[in-house]
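User: As part of a screening pipeline, I want to sanity-check one entry by hand. Below is the sequence and the SMILES for zinc ion. Please return the complex as structure tokens so I can compare it with the automated output.
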Amino acid sequence: MVKRATCHDCGTKEGQLHILGCDMERCPFCGNQLISCQCVYKKLRIDVSPGAWAYSHGLTDAQQKDWEKLLGDKGRIPFVLYPNLCAKCGTLWPEMFLVPDAEWKHYIEPQMQREMLCKACYKQVKAVSLRKAFQRIMGELTLEAKSSALAALASLKVPESQTRN
Ligand SMILES: [Zn+2]
Ligand SMILES: [Zn+2]
Ligand SMILES: [Zn+2]
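Assistant: Here is the complex for your manual check:
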């Protein structure tokens, strides 16, 4: 059974158009958020540089009408709810958690940085990355330094399974 979702911003039902001005509507020209993209100014050739009339006044009623016609001709994008899911294990609507930007970029490979991960998968990816870094460091050590590092690790009583590989 398919449940029809409701837009949390404008209240429209899935499959229908948002109310114009809804912050969830996508622009049919560029795919970005309709209320914040620049297509209206590009398409209507409106100058919005600082100091220009439109910069401080926004669209005139006539321009707004022209824009709505352009949107209509192009075909506005109806509301369809695409669920968030973990890009790794596929869990639907994973619990959100915060990772500092720098940390995220450090551990997540570039082409995956815009994806969403659940907490468990993030931990796993981070562990893989840490293990690689650890191996790289160990690879650069002299035999002597390596054995004293391993001895130091052993004295920390880290379980074998976490230090192997
Ligand atoms: Zn909406
Ligand atoms: Zn656009
Ligand atoms: Zn996951």
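Points to compare against the pipeline: The CA atoms of residues 133 and 139 lie 10 Å apart. The chain has two domains: 1-81, 101-162.
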